[in-house]
Amino acid sequence: MTGDVLVRGEGLRKRFGGIAAVDGVDFAVARGDLIGLIGPNGSGKTTLINLLTGHLAPDAGTVVLGRATVAGAPPYVFAGLGVARTFQLTQLFGRMTVLENMLVPGLTRPHSTWPGAAARARAYLDFLNLSHVMHLEAKNLSGGQQKLLELGRALMLEPTLLFLDEPFAGVHPHLRDELIKRIQELHASGRTFVVVDHDMESILRIARRLVVMARGRKIADGPPGDVRGDAAVLAAYAGLQ
Amino acid sequence: MRGLHIYIALAVAVLSLVSARTLNAYWMHVAIIAMFYGILASSWSLLAGYAGLFSLGHMAFASLGGYTSALLVQWYHIPIPLGMAAGVALCTVAGGLIGWVCLRMSGPYLAIFTLGFSEIVRIVLSTEDQVTAGMAGLHTAPLFRAPTDLPYYYTAFGLLLFALAVLILITRSRWGLFLRALREDEQAAAACGVAVARFRILAFAIASGLAALAGGFYAHYIGILTPSLGSLDLMAVVVVMAVIGGMERIPTAVGGAFGIEVLQETLRAYGQWRLVLFGIILLLTMRFARNGLLTPLWRLLTGIGEARRPAPAPRGIGPEGSRP
Question: What is the value of pTM for the model shown?
Fold first, then answer.
């Protein structure tokens, strides 16, 4: 970790029926991190993100955001404290325009105004090369454009920390490169990222720190170079070799 | 010509006011009932069309509003407008409570829950006949003692305008945007910082308050209240009006209310067959024009004049990001 801690999950547990999706995980994100969160299917990555963004309440453990203990608080509290996220399967407001999609988070910000939010939305749409589709309904965008829009919507919260859940899944290589470039630019401008994906090539291109999960537990955490050679990781996640 | 729809709405409003005196007693009654339904269909649209909360308890709130006002006026001899206001206040709070209880419900679960609530209200009003006079009907104090229904017409017109002003103000504000976001994807809306619970409760409270306003007016216009005001039959009529008109826009829902009410009366000679016709229109609407029959027309009207602008802007935002 490189700086002060933005979010810290301690002893997080979440069970679904008889299955421990997250089983006693400690996970901290420091300001300036760009973390790749990887692991086989069903290893608990998305559940961990849900716990750290308020979309699930933990059965045990705490989530500390800055100095506030927020475990069990609704997602809008997390959003208000600067935590944004995207979803594994893109979740846009399909029958609202691209610009309206951007305005929703923009107008939830304290003291926000319509002109101010609209101006910021237009700037982010420019940044994401989506200006030309801003008046289309979001459902009409391509898969890659939808991923970009979801990132833009998250940015409208002016977050300090972004969780991106499988941002590269199903995205054309050209758009994937664009997405990587945007994430790197945003990281360079001071944003902190946790990126979950199965696309190892993309993750290894951007991650400064790699966290590996398997069967609900964190089995490795460190610089990508170290983690890639970890025996437990190689055993649990053959794709790393 | 930009804002053509606003000029047309204003022209219709002025024409309605000016032509009121030319209506005979029968058509004046039809117009008053159409305005009553206009309030109900438009406020239900806020719930179902904007927020995606398919409630079947709307007429129960109209009924509660009517009985509250009628009974308070009867028992305490308070002025009728005060009784109506009490009904609105009670139903706003009760609606908010229902919204809170239903926080985790949507789709068919919410519909069934609100249907259950509606039936409880109806049955209690039927059973407690010592208070409500049950199915025999509760005689209510008239709002006006006048030789014609003209004062009722103007009152209904004013109440409809008030309801539309409230609804349009909400739907054009950031609250309207948040409600639509909730309808589209509640989880994503929450991730965007929308306080889901607060806005669901708010939608229920406002819609229920407006339903009570309509119910209070109806009680003191018709002169007799029965629990059937809160029946599923009337709820279905309101749903049909909003859906056929277009429940995702307030003006189209009102248009649906007027259209169906006028059709109901003009086709009265066909008895129950007219209801079959409404059923067929509803089926065709759901199959071929899911956003309602009036929505394309409304889009056309609102779109005229926009085409010449470099890029259409979303509601409430000018092309350069400024609010017009």
Answer: 0.89
